[in-house]
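Entry 14. Two folds queued back to back today. First construct below, sequence then structure tokens.
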Amino acid sequence: MKQYYILSKVRRKKKKYMNGAEPIVAPHRLERQFEASSPNEKWFTDVTYLLFGERTLYLSTSIDAFNREIISYVVSESQNLALAMKTVKQAMRGRKVKEVTLHSDQGSIYTAKEFQAYTKQNGIITSMSRKGNCHDNAVMESFFGHLKSEAFYSQKITKVSNTTVRKIVLEYIHYYNCVRIQEKLNHLFPKEFREQMV
């Protein structure tokens, strides 16, 4: 084409945004400060794939930085805005959430206008990891690693029904909050630590 002095135009790919709205990216406010001095000061949230059932399931979870307690979880067949909204609403139930900082990655479910508006209306301050940096949300990465290793891989679970996967997740979260001791929590389990410290 060059020899005939013809230049081709390269089409730029249009970015697709959730519901057509441009994403709202929150600052990296926590800057890897993973500890909290009181409950409902810092929350972490994320979604992971569960590839152990008949179909892929998505586990959305929130953790309180104060005692590493799982304060909400939702298992779904879709990774969408509804999943993120259900998780944060469940976490808010019965808790004082004004000025809690909620940290997530820059996934489209968290940068969605609806999610950002809802958290703002309820006094929640959002924080986000830097793009492509999973270590900024190490609290969630650590929990998901423990869950998959202890509840699935060590039990040699590869393919079971989706109902069984959901049951395993429920049982593991109860075990994690109410039985599994953590060195960082003075060798107590999360609920026990909260009860002793608050």
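Second construct, same run, same settings:
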Amino acid sequence: MRLGLFGILSIVTAFCACTQSSPASSDDDSVSLNGPHNSKVSSSSKKDAKSSSSRSSEVSDEECFGEAGEPWDGTTAKDFACGAGTKLSPYIILTAEQLARLSFLVNSSDKAYSGKYFKLGADILLNKGAVIDEKGALVADSTKLHKWTPIGNSSVSFDGNFDGDGHSISGMFINTTSTHNGLFGNSNGTVQNLTVENSWVKGGGYSGGIVGMNGGSISGVVNYSSVIGSQDCVGGVAGRSNGPYPKKASILNSKNLGIVKGVNFTAGIAGQAYQATLENVENYGLVEGKNNVGGIAGRGAYTYVSSYFMDCKNALNYADVYGEENVGGILGAAGYVSPTISSGNILATLINAKNEGKINGKTSVGGIIGFANRTSLENIGNVSAIEGDKYVSGIVGHLIGSTSKNLYNTGNISGSQNVGGIIGYNQEGVTNSAYSTGKVDGDSLVGLMIGYNYNTTMADYYYLERGKQEPFGLNNGGGVATPKTEEEMKSKDFAKLLGDEFVYDSGLNDGYPVFKWEKE
């Protein structure tokens, strides 16, 4: 039966309160659930309904109730705005109180809502006013903010389908030492079409702007919020993305524009990506961490077993990345993360990736990947400065047992040992079709192309002539590199020489060849 405005008003007296409370914040709200149930009457209006009906044909003016656009009062609604929880008739969420209801139900392990469909019908305001400034620093008085309890935690996960429908959630505030933080703390379901902005997420491990621990699918999301983690696995979109074998977790068509700071496994998109797919992802936010730090993922894949495979495609980093060991513009580390040779299948693939941010670290530092073992790279470019100490390069700092083709670097590289324009240290692999034009400075084992090349098959390597500087610091493998002048490299003929994936455009990359995918 469809209820109109007066029908809805006649039943709102059935609302009741639960015992949990969500007052303005204290230092840590890791245990509490969102809100007491809201007994306040919320009337239906055409304005409220239009916020959802303009995006969903199933929702009309008479069906939904809730004061859309109002800031959260810290309580939890007794019901959703409308809907049946099905794919054709999802539960509609118009208010912050209704969003808090979803958190309450999931964290209470209410299995009746597992597998259900939820959709935002309006933008949600969890706290009014500026929570962070343009640099990502917390500026709001935290004692006056309502703290958000993530949907899902270390014990229970969200197993439904959440569609933001292009709406935003703003003013989210999380300040805890517990793990599994974000709008969703733990999700094995689907989260899509959503922006989280003007928000502050500070917690322990598995902290992300959208999802703390992702075992499902994330797509079409944007994070404009600050994410700070005191433990491992911190990301702008997800702290960790790890699907249970044989299922893969995924993050697709998503961006991060917030600052991300953590310890180990810290990145703009996902701190860790095991048994996962990352595709069409971009990072614009500053990333700072210690080990395994990347613009896109801190670590992709993990060990020698095939159940921890990662593939990444169409990945762009525009922001600076700072760390110590295994630091990269796209991936901090990839594949089998061990300095020893291991036989077996490729564990990580990276196709179509580019870095434009400054990358700074100490050991195993690369414009694209810091350290990689049993990894495949294809159509990869770096145009920014890379600084480190040992194993430093424009593409991969330390590369073992891997394949790579179609690579270019135009950034300047500086380090002390095993420093190269393309690869710092290259062992037991196959690499084809690459060029480098940047300056390369270091103390020992320094080459314009590769710092130290050992037992690697190589072909079609080209470098910009720089006086008497050699292409290899030490070459104990097969293959040579050919010098070219600047005029030769800035030409259609050189692009053709590199292969079908390269094109010449005088207006791009200072006239040096770029990839076809960069122009698409």
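Quick look at the second one. The mean pLDDT is 89. The domain at 123-518 is CATH 2.160.20.110 (Pectate Lyase C-like).
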